[in-house]
Design a protein that fits this description.
The complex is a heterotrimer of chains A (65), B (959) and C (207). By secondary structure, chain B is an alpha/beta fold. Helix content of chain B is 32%, strand content 15%. Chain B has a seven-stranded mixed β-sheet, with helices on both faces. Chain B has a six-stranded mixed β-sheet with strand order 27-29-28-34-26-30. In chain B, helix 5 runs parallel beside helix 24. The two termini of chain B are 53 Å apart. Chain C is built from seven helices and six strands; from the N terminus they run E-H-E-E-H-E-E-H-H-H-E-H-H. Classes of the chains: A mainly alpha (65), B alpha/beta (959), C alpha+beta (207). Bound molecules: iron/sulfur cluster (3 copies). One iron/sulfur cluster (SF4) is lined by residues 8, 13-19, 38, 52, 155-157, 159-160 of chain C.
C-alpha cells in the first residue's frame, strides 16, 4: 500500500500540474486533528460555513459597489 | 528512492530558474537589493541585538493559553489613514491582532506598519526608565529625581531668561486630548514657543487651503475617492505613504477611474497609474499652470461654478497664459501633449480629484504650489463635490488633530489665533483668569506674537541675539515625541544642541535626539519614557477629519507614563496643575481623557470639534459595521445618519446631533446633513468685487439662497433670528459670534432652524492677497543646479523678523547660483512603506526592521556609470553644507539622470560613523543608517516656515 | 468543500509588505524567517508589478515527494503541513519547491524553529489545535478558529486572497470583469494545475 501510494505520488510529480486529490505519501509524523474539531465540535458543515462567510471579508465589493 | 526524489527536485529546480521571477529580473528590486547588501550588517549580528533579554516583556509565546481573551479596539498609530485594529489581550499581554473588517476606513486592511503594531506590546527596544546624561553616558535615574532636576533647571532658565527661552516640540502622535493639553501647558508656562510635525509636513497646505476656501484640511476622504472618475496624484506616493488609501483608489480604478501620477520619481503609485509623467523637481507650478493652460484654452473650465463660487480666477488665468507648452517644457521638462492629456482626463472624467503630500508642500514656495493645485480644482468646479475635492493626505496618525487643537506657535486650539480675543475666549473655556495667563508671559506683546517654528529652533539657539525677535535665545529644548532627523540642516543641529543649557527628550522609543545629544554633549540631557498610544486612550483625527477613539490596550510598559501624566507631573512642579485641569478630573496624576475631550468640545466652535463627545465617538467605534463605505454614513443602527467618526466640522453641541461633514463645502446637502459652502473669512468685498457667493449658490434648502457673511449677534438680530434663541442662549450669545458663543445657540439656530452656515457663504479665493505671491508664481529653490532658471525665476527677498527669526532667500540663492557645478544632482527625499517619520520607532520593531536594513540613495544608471558607481556600492553623498553621508547606491531608473532620491526615515549613523554607542544601553533602533537630513540645506516657505527638503542638490562619489 | 488556495492579484498588489508583517506578527517568526515575501518584477520601470509569494500548498507538492523523513502531510483542505519533530533540516524540500517557500533559520538560535519552517496557511501543525505546543512550533492555527490566513485578511488592498478556491476565484473573477483585465495569477497554474484557474475577464468590462 505504501509503495503504491509513493509511486503514485512520484508519477504525479513528474506529470505535474493537474488538480487531483493527492495521497499523503508515507507521512510518518503525528496525526493532526481535523480543523473543525477543537472549536466547532466536529461539525464540519458549520466550520465550512464560518470560513465561507469570513472569506467574503476579502471582497470589498460586498460592502462597496 | 532518494535518487528519484532528487530527480524530482532537479526538475523543479530547473523550473525555478525559468519561472520564478525573483531570480530573473535584470534590475534588482529594492528588497532583493537591500537583503543582499544587508549581508554586511550580518543577519546574525542584527539578530543578536534583539533579545538582549533585559527586562523583556511577555510575548504571545510566553503567555499561558489560559485566561480570558479581551478585545480592545484601537487605531494604527503610523499614518493618517486611521486603520482600526482589534487587539487581543490575555492577562494583560497583547497576544493577537485581528483585522477589523467592520471599519469603513480600512475594512480590515493594513500595510506593513499597521500589521506590526502588536510589537509595541513587546517593545524590547523601548526607552525603559528616566535617564540622564552623565559624562557622555546615559544613566538610569528615578522619576522623582528626573522630575525634580528637570523642573529645577527649567524654572531656573525661566527665571533668568524668561519663558521664551524654552522651546517645546510636541507631537503629532499625541492624541487630541494630549495635544490640546500641551498647547494649554505651554501657554501656562508662558510662551508661544511650541510646535509639532505639521510645521514640516503640511503647514503650507493648511495655510494655503484655509486661505483659499476656509479650512486647512483634506476636503473629502479616502473613502470618497471611490466616487472619483479621475484621480491625480502630484507629490504623493500613496502606495508607500498611505497604502490602505490605495484600496479605495484601486477600487475606483476598477470602476473605471483614471489614475494619473506626476512625480519626479517613478513611484510605486506611478506603477499603478494609467498616466505617468516625470517633471523636474520643484517645478510644480509650471506643470499645474501648464495643465490649466489647456483647460482654459479648450474651455473646459466650469464657468458657472467660477462665477458663483470663485474670486479672482481671471488673475490666475492671466498668469496661466504665460505658461505655454513650450515654456513648460523648457522649465519643467514635460511636453504639452502629456499635459493636454492630463487636462482632458481631469476635465472629461468628473468628478475628478487631486491628491498631494509633501512632494508639493516641502518647498520654499510650498504655500503657492498647493494653491496652484487648488486653482486647478476650482477651475474644474471639483471642490465641494463628492468624488472631487482636494484629497490632501496628512502624515502622522494624529497630525490633523494636533494641527487642529494642538501645540501651534501661532494659534490656540481651533485656529483661534493668539490675539487678545482668542486668549479671552479660551480663558473662559479653561476657567482661568486671562490676566493670570498674561502674567505668565514675558509681556502682552510676546503673548500675541507667533513663536519660533520647529523647523527653525536651531536658529533660535544659534542666531545672534540682536537678530532674534524675542528677548533671549533658546536655552532649553524639549523634544516631546518628535524626531530630530526629520528636520533639515542636521549638521547645524548638532551645533545647536551643543549650545543649549539643557535638552529633554520625552518619547517611548530610543530617540535619535538622545543619540545626537550624547554625541554633542557630556551632560544636560534628560530622557523620560512615554507610553505609546496603545497604553492609553483618547481620540485621534484621521486625514479625512474623522475622529476615532482608542481604547487602552495594555498598561504602560516598563516605567513609562502616558504623555498627559507627564504633563500633569511637570505642571505640578511648575505650580499650575490646578489651572491646567480645572474642568478635568485627575486620578493618580492622570487627567481624564474624556473630560479633556469635553473641554475641547466646549471651546472649539470654529472648526466644529464641539459635537464629538466621547460618548458619540465610542458609539461609532462600536458600530463601525453600520457605516457605508462610500459615503461614510450610518444606515440605521444607533448612529443612524451620522458620518463615521463625526468628521469635523461637527457643529453645535453633541445634543444638536450634527452628523459631521464628510465632504467640505458641498452645497448639494443640507447643513444639518454635512452640507456647506465656502467660508466667509476674508471680508465681504475686495477691489469693489463681492467676496460673497453668487445668487442661488448656497447649501441645500438654506433660508438664504445667496452669499452671506459669518454670523454674530448683530446679524442674528438684523435677520430677526435672535428670538429663535432660548433665554439661556441669549444671555450667553449677546455680544458674541458663532465662534465664541459658548452656548452654541447661534450655531443651533443658524443651522437647525434656518439651514444656513454659521461661517457664512462666500467665494473661494484663487487670489490670496495676504500672501507674498497672491497668484502663485514659480520661483526656483534656493539651491538649484539650474543657474539659467534661477536667473529667470528668482526667489523672494530676505525677511528680517519672520516667526521671530531672520529668514534668508535671495542672499542664499545668489550666493549659490553656481552650486550646480560642484553639486550637479538634484536631491529629493521621501517615504518607505515600512517606516514612519524619523523612523526610530519603526526601525526598533524587528518585524519591520528586517525588511529594510540599509539606508540607500537611488541613482540613475547614467549618473551612476558616469561616476563609476555600481549597484550596491557604498557611496558618499555630499551636499553644500559640507555634510557627507555614507549610504548604499541603488542604481535604478526610478529617478532620472539628474535626480537622486533618499528615504528620510533613517538615523543612527552620522557621516560614516555608527552612533550605537551614543544610545542608551538596550534602547537603540535595530536598523541604523545615515539621516537624509544630516545633509539637507537651508530654505523655508515664505508663509509658514516649512522647510525645503524636496529640492536641494548633492554630489555622489564612490566610497 | 474547501480546497484552500492563495491568489495574488498583481493589479492590486502595491508591495506594501502588510502580508509579510501580518505573518510575522501572527506567528512570531524570528528574524530571518520569511514565510511570505513580496517580489517585484521590473522594479522602477513602467510596467512594474509585484506579487506576494509563500508556500502555495501545491496540489502535487514536490516537497512532500523529496523529503527523506516523510514529514509532510496534506490536510483534507489541501494544506501542506509538516511535522517538525521529524524534520532533520536537510534542505531537500527547499530545492524542490518552485516558490522557495521552506525557510531554514540558523540552527540553535530559535529553539524548535531550527527545523524547516514554512507557511502553514495559518493551520498550525500536528499538535493539539490551539495549544501552546502548536503555537511555539507552527504558529497560530487560524483555520481551526474559523478564520483565514492573516496575510490575506490584512492585505492593504485585498490583492492577496486566501481561502476556498471557488470563493476566491469568484472574488477575483468579479474584479477582473469590472476592470476588463485579469492580472497575472502568477504561480497559480504551477501550484494547482491548469484546471480551475479563474478566467481572465473578457475584454470590455466596465470602464
Ligand atoms: S500606517 Fe496607515 S495605512 Fe498602514 S495600517 Fe497604519 S493607518 Fe493603515
Ligand atoms: S497563510 Fe499564515 S503562515 Fe502562511 S504566509 Fe499567510 S500568514 Fe503566514
Ligand atoms: S499586503 Fe497585499 S498589497 Fe501589500 S504586499 Fe502583500 S499582497 Fe501586496
Amino acid at each position: 500500500m505504501k509503495t503504491l501510494a509513493l509511486l503514485l505520488a512520484a508519477t504525479a510529480v513528474l506529470a505535474a500540474c493537474s488538480e487531483r486529490p493527492q495521497s499523503v505519501g508515507d507521512y510518518r509524523g503525528k496525526t493532526d486533528a481535523k480543523p473543525y474539531e477543537a472549536n466547532f465540535g466536529g461539525d464540519k458543515a458549520k466550520w465550512e460555513a464560518a470560513l465561507r462567510a469570513r472569506n467574503q471579508n476579502q471582497n470589498e465589493y460586498k460592502r462597496a459597489e | 528512492m532518494l535518487t528519484l526524489k532528487n530527480k524530482a527536485a532537479a526538475t523543479r529546480r530547473a523550473r525555478l530558474t525559468r519561472d520564478v521571477p525573483m531570480n530573473a529580473p535584470e534590475t534588482m528590486d529594492r528588497r532583493t537589493f537591500l537583503k543582499r547588501s544587508g549581508i554586511g550588517v550580518g543577519v546574525g549580528a542584527v539578530a543578536a541585538q534583539i533579545g538582549s533579554g533585559m527586562m523583556r516583556p511577555a510575548t504571545a509565546a510566553d503567555a499561558p493559553a489560559s485566561g480570558n481573551v479581551e478585545i480592545k479596539r484601537t487605531v494604527c498609530t503610523h499614518c493618517s489613514v486611521g486603520c482600526a485594529i482589534d487587539a487581543e489581550v490575555r492577562n494583560g499581554v497583547w497576544i493577537g491582532q485581528e483585522p477589523v473588517f467592520d471599519s469603513p476606513i480600512n475594512l480590515g486592511a493594513h500595510c506593513a506598519k499597521g500589521a506590526s503594531v502588536r510589537e509595541h506590546g513587546h517593545g524590547e527596544m523601548r526607552l525603559k526608565y528616566p535617564m540622564k546624561l552623565v559624562d557622555g553616558k546615559y544613566q538610569k535615574i528615578s522619576w522623582d529625581q528626573a522630575l525634580k532636576e528637570i523642573s529645577e533647571k527649567l524654572l531656573a532658565i525661566r527665571k533668568e531668561h524668561g519663558p521664551d527661552a524654552v522651546y517645546w516640540i510636541g507631537s503629532s502622535k499625541h492624541n487630541n486630548e494630549q495635544s490640546y493639553l500641551l498647547r494649554k501647558f505651554v501657554s501656562f508656562w508662558g510662551s508661544n514657543n511650541c510646535d509639532h510635525q505639521a510645521r514640516i509636513c503640511h503647514s503650507t497646505t493648511v495655510a494655503g487651503v484655509a486661505n483659499t476656501w476656509g479650512y486647512g484640511a483634506m476636503t473629502n476622504s479616502y473613502n470618497d475617492m471611490q466616487n472619483a472618475r479621475a484621480v491625480f496624484f502630484m507629490g504623493s506616493n500613496a502606495a508607500e505613504a498611505h497604502p490602505v488609501a490605495m484600496q479605495h483608489v484601486l477600487h475606483a480604478k476598477e470602476a473605471g477611474a483614471k489614475i494619473i501620477v506626476g512625480d519626479p520619481r517613478f513611484t510605486r503609485t506611478a506603477a499603478k497609474a494609467d498616466q505617468y509623467f516625470r517633471f523636474r523637481s520643484g517645478t510644480d507650478i509650471p506643470v499645474i499652470w501648464g495643465i490649466l493652460y489647456h483647460v482654459f484654452k479648450n474651455g473646459w473650465e466650469d464657468k458657472k461654478y467660477i462665477d458663483d463660487r470663485v474670486f479672482g480666477m481671471d488673475k490666475v488665468r492671466a498668469e496661466v497664459e504665460k505658461w505655454t507648452p513650450d515654456k513648460v517644457q523648457e522649465v519643467a521638462g514635460v511636453d504639452g501633449d502629456t499635459l493636454l492629456k492630463v487636462a482632458e482626463t481631469m476635465a472629461k472624467n468628473k468628478p475628478s480629484t487631486i491628491v498631494w503630500c509633501m512632494g508639493q508642500t516641502q518647498h520654499t514656495i510650498g504655500n503657492a504650489i498647493v494653491r496652484a493645485f487648488c486653482c486647478l480644482q476650482l477651475a474644474l468646479g471639483n471642490i465641494g463635490k463628492s468624488g472631487g475635492g482636494a484629497n490632501i493626505f496628512r502624515g502622522h496618525d494624529n497630525v490633523q488633530g494636533a494641527t487642529d487643537v494642538g501645540p501651534n506657535p501661532d494659534s490656540l486650539p481651533g485656529y483661534y489665533g493668539i490675539a487678545a480675543g482668542a486668549w479671552k475666549h479660551w480663558a473662559r473655556v479653561w476657567g482661568v483668569d486671562y490676566e493670570w495667563i498674561k502674567g505668565r508671559y514675558a509681556s502682552e506683546a510676546m503673548m500675541t506674537k507667533p513663536g519660533i517654528t520647529v523647523s527653525r529652533w536651531i536658529d533660535g539657539v544659534l542666531e545672534k541675539n540682536e537678530l532674534v525677535d524675542q528677548g533671549p535665545n533658546l536655552k532649553a529644548v524639549v523634544y516631546w515625541g518628535m524626531a530630530p532627523n526629520s528636520q533639515t540642516r542636521g549638521k547645524e543641529m548638532i551645533e545647536a544642541m551643543k549650545a543649549l543649557d539643557m535638552l529633554m527628550v520625552i518619547d517611548p522609543y530610543p530617540s535619535a535626539t538622545a543619540a545626537m545629544a550624547a554625541m554633542a554633549r557630556k551632560d544636560g540631557v534628560y530622557l523620560l519614557p512615554a507610553a505609546t498610544q496603545f497604553e492609553t486612550s483618547g481620540s485621534c483625527t484621521a486625514s479625512n477629519r474623522s475622529l476615532q477613539w482608542r481604547e487602552k490596550v495594555i498598561e504602560p510598559l516598563f516605567e513609562s507614563k502616558p504623555d498627559h501624566v507627564i504633563m500633569y507631573l511637570l505642571a505640578q512642579k511648575f505650580g499650575f496643575e490646578q489651572e491646567l485641569t480645572k474642568n478635568i478630573k485627575v486620578t493618580n496624576n492622570e487627567p481624564s481623557m474624556e473630560d479633556t475631550l469635553r473641554e475641547i468640545n466646549k471651546g472649539t466652535w470654529t472648526i466644529g470639534y464641539t459635537g464629538q463627545s466621547p460618548e458619540r465617538l465610542k458609539l461609532h467605534m462600536k458600530h463601525m459595521n453600520t457605516f457605508d463605505v462610500k459615503t461614510l454614513k450610518a444606515v440605521g443602527g444607533p448612529c443612524d445618519g451620522d458620518y463615521f467618526g463625526l468628521p469635523w466640522p461637527c457643529y453645535g453641541s453633541p445634543e444638536m446631533k450634527h452628523p459631521g461633514t464628510p465632504n467640505l463645502y458641498d452645497t448639494s446637502k443640507h447643513v444639518m446633513d454635512g452640507g456647506g459652502n465656502f467660508r466667509a473669512n476674508f471680508g465681504v468685498e475686495r477691489d469693489g468685487v463681492s467676496l460673497l457667493a453668487g445668487d442661488g449658490s448656497a447649501s441645500k434648502d438654506a433660508d438664504l439662497q445667496f452669499g452671506y457673511p459669518e454670523f454674530d449677534h448683530v446679524l442674528m438680530k438684523k435677520l430677526g433670528w435672535w428670538d429663535d434663541l432660548s433665554e439661556e442662549e441669549k444671555k450667553e450669545a449677546e455680544g458674541k459670534n458663532w465662534k465664541t458663543d459658548l452656548s452654541g445657540g447661534i450655531q443651533r439656530v443658524v443651522m437647525k432652524v434656518h439651514g444656513c452656515h454659521p461661517f457664512g457663504n462666500a467665494k473661494a479665493r484663487a487670489v490670496v492677497w495676504n500672501f507674498p505671491d497672491a497668484v502663485p508664481v514659480h520661483r526656483e529653490p534656493l539651491f538649484s543646479p539650474r543657474a539659467d532658471m534661477v536667473a529667470l525665476y528668482p526667489t523672494h527677498d530676505d525677511k528680517k523678523a519672520f516667526w521671530r527669526l531672520p529668514t534668508l532667500y535671495k542672499s542664499v540663492q545668489e550666493k549659490n547660483k553656481d552650486i550646480g557645478k560642484e553639486f550637479p544632482l538634484v536631491l529629493t527625499s521621501g517615504r518607505l512603506v515600512e517606516y514612519e517619520g524619523g523612523g526610530e520607532e519603526t526601525r526598533s520593531n524587528p518585524w519591520l526592521a528586517e525588511l529594510q536594513q540599509d539606508m540607500f540613495i537611488e541613482i540613475n544608471p547614467k549618473a551612476a556609470n558616469d561616476r563609476g558607481i555600481r549597484n550596491g556600492d557604498d557611496v558618499w553623498v555630499k551636499t553644500p553644507t559640507g555634510a557627507q553621508l555614507k549610504v548604499k547606491a541603488l542604481v535604478t531608473e526610478r529617478v532620472d539622470a539628474g535626480t537622486c532620491f533618499m528615504p528620510y526615515h533613517f538615523s543612527g549613523r552620522w557621516m560614516g560613523e555608527d552612533m550605537l554607542k551614543y544610545y542608551p544601553e538596550g534602547a537603540h533602533p535595530i536598523v541604523r543608517g545615515e539621516a537624509a537630513n544630516t545633509g539637507t540645506t537651508y530654505g523655508y516657505d515664505s508663509v509658514t516656515m516649512m522647510q525645503e527638503t524636496k529640492t536641494t542638490v548633492c554630489q555622489v562619489v564612490r566610497a | 468543500m474547501a480546497r484552500m488556495k492563495f491568489l495574488c492579484d498583481s493589479e492590486r498588489c502595491i508591495e506594501c509588505n502588510g502580508c509579510v508583517t501580518a505573518c510575522k506578527n501572527e506567528h512570531e517568526t524570528p528574524w530571518g524567517i520569511s514565510r511570505r515575501r513580496v517580489v517585484t518584477l521590473g522594479d522602477g520601470k513602467p510596467g512594474e508589478k509585484t506579487i506576494s509569494v509563500a508556500c502555495m500548498h501545491c496540489s502535487d507538492a514536490p516537497c512532500m515527494a523529496v523529503c527523506p523523513t516523510d514529514c509532510f502531510y496534506r490536510t483534507d483542505e489541501g494544506v501542506v503541513l509538516h511535522d517538525k519533530d521529524l524534520c532533520i533540516g536537510c534542505g531537500y524540500c527547499f530545492y524542490a519547491c518552485p516558490f522557495g517557500a521552506p525557510q531554514f533559520p540558523q540552527a540553535g538560535n530559535f529553539g524548535q524553529r531550527g527545523k524547516m519552517d514554512k507557511c502553514t496557511f495559518c493551520a498550525g501543525g500536528p499538535e493539539k489545535d490551539g495549544s501552546d505546543e502548536e503555537y511555539k512550533k507552527y504558529g497560530r492555527n487560524r483555520l481551526a478558529e474559523g478564520k483565514l490566513p492573516l496575510c490575506a485578511e490584512m492585505c492593504s488592498t485585498k490583492a492577496l486572497l486566501a481561502g476556498d478556491a471557488d470563493v476566491i476565484s469568484e472574488i477575483f473573477r468579479e474584479r477582473a470583469l469590472r476592470r476588463g483585465k485579469g492580472g497575472e495569477l502568477w504561480g497559480w497554474k504551477q501550484a494547482y494545475g491548469a484546471d480551475g484557474a479563474p478566467e481572465p475577464a473578457k475584454q470590455g468590462g466596465k470602464t
